[in-house]
């Protein structure tokens, strides 16, 4: 039976042979390698049997040599089913339409879910914000930004949110938010000293609690006690009267601001020539249908009349139910850019270097520090670059709290 | 020459226990109840009707009689017959 296996897939035909001794025709077929099955006698001069679709031409050839009449009946198998199917135009049309519909549906957001323990008004706010981004039920998936970007924008735009997780799961957008809860910082109200965090020369002191241990214009090393939190109770004049009272000390948390002048050294390198790009704000958008490496333009034809173009493209795969098709919608933004060339003299480069070093230091120390003076210690020019070695003095608060440990 | 062959073959079958259908070019007929007849090594179809199947062999014909015959499969030198079988007969020719 192996010989007739798979005949349904390849298709088979039932033929009726009419003539004298019709069974002999089948014998001829078999002799020339055609498999015949289910042969049945139909009458005195006719016989029927199944043959494979691929053997039809062989049968035609055999029939030409003999005096038989052959009629085809019952075409069976997939080739015939397909042919019958493709003959019906409305059927094909509806089939294509339904696939397109599924394609269309799979690329639309059906639901925006907001989870997490959020109060109603924040949820409302998120919804509103998402609407302004174009994310709502019924929006095209490939027209909106990727989840990571939305996450970023949401946390930026809604200050009440500490964190928001955006996840695209098929046709639903899942958002998980965590509300920002302002936690009051617990101040450790224990007795403490103020010590120096850096070496420096004290310029100003504002002590609101505690006993200052240093004076203005004194040089301090890191770790030195600036303001002591240990207060002695008795006045100094009554010494010798009661010795045990001297041991009774009052410990307070020292508070105050010690502004000291500190110094920093920095290395900067500034090139004399510099190229940089600037976007002018002019831009054009183009949409492509991407299959593998091939891009087919759908929207936005012609090239923009910019001289220098900065390209930025995002790819969004088209979905079919839950699979990503190998077809992408590519949105590319062409922005005009200008290439700026900058050339400066050594003098200008030094100024730029000092400015840059100051900015960096300010960033490092925070806004409370004040850079009072800077000095170029060493300057050299090599390979078109100016190398600077700078010395800067800063006025900043160097006080650092250190708890006083008791009992041990 | 042919005579020697014809003499040697039964001898081979008898003493060397070689399968007789292969050595002597005889048809091998397998009958399953009254349902199926499976014939190998035949030399072609002679007659086929609803009630009779006659096959050529090296020595004459095999005649199978019965009713509602269908040739389930036809291959060179092989035939599978289905139906209600009543007779199997060898006709020397």
Please provide a written account of the structure:
- The complex is a heterodimer of chains A (408) and B (93).
- Chain A is of the alpha+beta class and 408 residues long.
- Chain A has helices at 7-10, 23-31, 56-65, 78-87, 89-106, 120-133, 147-157, 243-247, 346-365, and strands spanning 12-18, 36-41, 46-52, 69-76, 111-115, 161-169, 172-179, 192-196, 200-209, 211-212, 219-220, 225-228, 230-232, 249-251, 255-271, 273-291, 294-299, 309-320, 323-343, 370-382, 385-397, 399-403.
- In chain A, the strands form six sheets. A five-stranded antiparallel β-sheet of chain A has the order 11-9-15-21-20. In chain A, strands 2-3-1-4 form a four-stranded antiparallel β-sheet. In chain A, strands 10-12-8-22 form a four-stranded antiparallel β-sheet, with no helix packed on it.
- In chain A, a hairpin with a 2-residue loop joins strand 18 (309-320) and strand 19.
- The longest helix of chain A has 20 residues, at 346-365.
- With 93 residues, chain B is of the alpha+beta class.
- Chain B has two helices and six strands, in the order ααββββββ.
- Chain B has a six-stranded antiparallel β-sheet, with no helix packed on it.
- The two termini of chain B are 23 Å apart.
- The mean pLDDT of chain B is 86.
- The chains are: A alpha+beta (408), B alpha+beta (93).
- At the A-B interface, helix 2 and strand 2 of A face strand 3 and strand 5 of B.
CATH class of the domain at 2-82 in chain A reads: Alpha Beta
* Structural class computed from helices and strand pairing of chain A: alpha+beta
Count, helices of chain B: 2
Strand order of the largest sheet of chain B: 1-2-6-5-4-3
Strand residues, percent of chain B: over 45%
Mean pLDDT figure of chain B: 86
Roughly what percent helix of chain B? 10-25%
Spatial extent as radius of gyration of chain A: 44 Å
CATH third-level topology of chain B:
Immunoglobulin-like
Major sheet attributes of chain A: 5 strands, antiparallel
Helix content of chain A: 10-25%
Oligomer: heterodimer
* Low-pLDDT ranges of chain B: none
First-to-last CA distance of chain B: 23 Å
Spans of at least 5 consecutive residues with low confidence of chain A? 237-245
Strand content of chain A: over 45%
Q: Identify the CATH architecture of chain B.
A: Sandwich
- Per CATH, the superfamily of the domain at 2-82 in chain A is Metallocarboxypeptidase-like
> According to CATH, what is the topology of the domain at 2-82 in chain A?
Alpha-Beta Plaits
Shape of chain B: elongated
Instruction: Supply Rg of chain B.
Output: 15 Å
